[in-house]
Amino acid sequence: MQIGAVTEILREAAEAAIVPRFRALADGEVREKTPGEVVTVADREAEELIAPRLRSLVNAPVVGEEAAAGDPSLVSALRQAPVAWVVDPLDGTANFVAGRPEWAVMAAMVRGGQTVAAWIVRPTDDRVYVGELGSGAWRNGARVQRAPAPADTTELRGAALTRFLDPAARARVLAAAPMFAELGTGLSCCGFDYPRLVDGELDFVLFRRTLPWDHAPGALLLSEAGGTARRADGTAYRPDDDRVGLLGAADDRCWNLVRPLLFP
């Protein structure tokens, strides 16, 4: 696995297409992709730079967020192709447009429907997270291992991304909030929320939407650092599974403590 080569591809795409536009977007460089969701020229140009270079490393389909927005059938490669790339050229686009620093460039390799390698590149704080199935997780080249979460629910710190929750799920989250030491709404960027779990800033994060370009990188990073990302029924996250609902946690005990409080 050419871990370093992929990191450089993502770094160089960010430097060429994204960083120069941070807090400097021109009129007409932002548009609404779907109701309530924006895309920028930086998203599109970065993906156009990344995709062919990943194919030059491993000649496999590239499931990019922006390409899949135009052709949703591309996502089928995650179920049908022996190997596929997943790319989020600008995770946290809304933050980027608003001038907030929580955005990232992410990629993953999927083999047989399972994520086997993951990359999160964050230019605003110069952090790079990498995970490889069975080999571990790293932050800026140093091995990272998630410490166990507290055993007492009242000491747990978490986040629940309530934006996409239905009313019943949102009410359940609000009712559970007093049971934890902290329950925020997350940073609207998986490239920051998953690393917050890995780095010990949070003990759990609840997601509803689980699009592969958002979650394939972070879920592998978390699991390789000793955490877990599982569906409500306890099955591990896979990028070829389009169900909704996912709970990431520092460890299995934490997941089992939080799950009955946040899932029906």
Structural class: alpha+beta
Element order: H for helix, E for strand = HEEHEHHEHEEEEEEHEHEHEEH
Number of strands: 14
Radius of gyration: 17 Å
Overall number of structural domains: 2
Average pLDDT, rounded to a whole number, is 96
Q: What percent strand?
A: 25-35%
**What is the topology, as strand order, of the major beta sheet?**
3-4-5-6-7-8-9
For this structure, what is the CATH homologous superfamily of the largest domain?
Fructose-1,6-Bisphosphatase, subunit A, domain 1
Which ranges are low-confidence, i.e. pLDDT below 50, for 5 or more consecutive residues? Answer: none
Q: Under the CATH scheme, which class of the largest domain? A: Alpha Beta
Largest sheet: 7 strands, mixed
CATH architectural group of the largest domain: 2-Layer Sandwich
Task: Throw out a few tags for this protein.
264 residues, alpha+beta, Fructose-1,6-Bisphosphatase, Chain A, domain 1, D-Maltodextrin-Binding Protein, domain 2, 7-stranded mixed β-sheet, 5-stranded mixed β-sheet, 9 helices, 14 strands, 35% helix
